[in-house]
Specification:
With 344 residues, this protein is of the alpha/beta class. The chain has 2 domains: 142 residues, Nucleotidyltransferase, domain 5; 166 residues, ATPase, nucleotide binding domain (Nucleotidyltransferase, domain 5). It contains 10 helices and 11 strands. A 6-stranded mixed sheet has the order 9-8-7-6-10-11, with helices on both faces. Strands 3-2-1-4-5 form a 5-stranded mixed sheet, sandwiched between helices. Helix 5 packs across helix 6.
Length: 344
């Protein structure tokens, strides 16, 4: 019944996307490049009680929510299950138990309808989020990826090929935001709370740049994170009061300014005219404003996903699913989840 080689490719398929890699259970429907619906049920409020995501709680929440969120996405899109042409699902990277919930549901759904199953790399989903903001967007372009698990600058050559131009050699930017939030005593989720606190401060504390000195290809967030910890510790040892708003603002500048600067430099070096961005950190207002100013000054077009499509969602999974669908990359029902996937 389920034969990958027998599936025919349509120019504008109707695709259901499913995402369950962390604490959001999400589903979305696209028709070609047009987004018809995007629904999310989050367990973030429950996770906040523990200061971060508890994998077992996330997995149980996905199990309870996945059928509901898929039904809501189909209803909102005005689509019946038998009208779908494919199911795209995140199979990695992420929390293994959480991934298995969405993947198992997607496999059963695809099998019951005898339609292709499309395996989507979560990180590729973040890269594809830009297509949701500009239906006419086409490579080549430079993409800034800044998420909880990855930080990189990529040269997107075609819809399916990209080259890493620069990347972190240790922690990711999003991970650093979360750890600095804990140091500052801020609640989960950390990134948005660091951004809010930074609005109350000034970049007055000397911290190292996230770009490794004398390198154009390596970022380091481990050293920056440690510098924040040391600044807080040293002030406490001296009995001094340090303004947490200044710490947050200084950290934000050191974390984001080098990313913005190097992204624009890469675009100019490669001779491309468009810059995109994706990942949870791209929801940060300071990053968005800084990147917009830098691109305007360099005469570059900037395509940014809406903030709600920067954090985990199924619309981006469906968008990447479309790319894989048109390329004929369908997956067998034996597909398994994986917690780690190399960026390239």
């Amino acid at each position: 019944m389920y034969d990958i080689k027998s599936f025919k490719i349509k120019k504008e398929p109707l695709i259901l996307g499913i995402e369950s890699s962390c604490d959001e259970t999400a589903a979305a429907v696209i028709f070609g490049r047009k987004l018809l619906s995007s629904e999310i049920i989050s367990s973030a409020t429950e996770q906040a009680k523990y200061g971060g995501v508890v994998p077992e709680i996330a997995s149980r929440a996905h199990t309870e929510a996945v059928d509901e969120v898929v039904s809501a996405a189909l209803k909102s899109a005005g689509v019946q299950p038998n009208e779908l042409d494919a199911v795209a699902v995140t199979y990695g990277a992420g929390l293994l138990g959480a991934l298995l919930v969405g993947l198992s549901f997607a496999k059963a759904f695809a099998y019951s309808l005898n339609i292709p199953l499309i395996a989507v790399n979560h990180i590729r989903g973040h890269l594809a989020a830009a297509y949701l903001s500009d239906e006419n967007l086409k490579p080549p372009f430079i993409t800034l990826l800044a998420s909880g698990g990855h930080t990189a600058i990529l040269h997107t050559k075609t819809f399916t090929q990209f080259k890493v131009l620069a990347a972190t050699c240790d922690d990711a930017a999003g991970e650093a935001f979360d750890k600095v939030a804990r140091v500052l005593g801020l609640p989960y989720p950390g990134g948005v709370n660091v951004e809010r606190l930074a609005l109350e401060g000034k970049p007055s504390i000397k911290l190292p740049s996230a770009l490794v000195r004398a390198s154009k290809t390596k970022f380091s967030y481990s050293g920056l994170k440690t510098a924040v910890i040391n600044a807080m510790h040293n002030a406490a040892q001296r009995g001094e009061t340090i303004d947490k708003g200044d710490v947050a603002c200084s950290f934000q500048h050191s974390a984001i300014d080098p990313l913005v600067k190097r992204t624009v430099e890469c675009a100019l070096e490669k001779g491309v005219k468009t810059v995109t961005a994706g990942g949870g950190v791209v929801a940060n207002g300071y990053l968005r404003e800084s990147l917009k100013r830098a691109c305007d000054a360099a005469g570059l077009k900037l395509v940014l996903p809406e903030k709600k499509y920067c954090t985990d969602n199924a619309a981006m999974i469906a968008a990447e699913g479309l790319t894989q669908y048109l390329d004929g990359k369908f997956s067998p029902l034996s597909l398994n989840a994986t917690a780690h996937i190399p960026l390239a």
